[in-house]
Task: structure prediction
Amino acid sequence: MDTLDYTGHGLHKGSKLVVAVAGEKRRELCRRIPEDFVLPEGYGNPKMVLPGIMVVEGPAYGLSEGGVEYGFREDRSQEVKSFCTETDRLNPGLFSRKGLAWIVLVNDSDFCTRDLDNFLWVCFLRSNPSEDTYGLRSSCKSKHWGCNESLVTDARRKPHHTTPMKEDIEVERKAATRLNTWNPIS
Result:
């Protein structure tokens, strides 16, 4: 995973993540939410994006009204670690037995599953791999982090992220009309 520079707390402060897998295929990835899947309190609206990949709405970060808080850090790592521990307790073997490889915490599951571009935008522009990557049954061995069950990414909007752009159907219609009548050769 390679993120743009503004996913971190300053220019050129983003980070990288390599997910390495090897060997024979061991399991099928789930295409539907497992029947007995239960989320910890405060989390909801789980939706499948792709086989083995689920988005889940989590509690929002504290955001100021319309403003970006550059340099502001709201540490939610304990909350996400608790989500991982509780999710693993409520749903043992999510990856190993049920094929759920990756859970992405988001603000709006419906937006993320509307089309793949939305998911990719949210996931890779609202998460900094060095700060927002967690996992069920995670550990660190010989300076290498890993997890034995589902990978978890916190891709919720953070206080240092810019305000999302709102779609304006009228502006889109006017732009399309002008582009359709514009002839650069004339």
Remarks:
- The mean pLDDT is 83.
- Helices lie at 77-90, 109-114, 116-125, 129-132, 169-181.
- The first strand starts at residue 44 and ends at 50.
- DSSP finds five helices and seven strands in the chain.
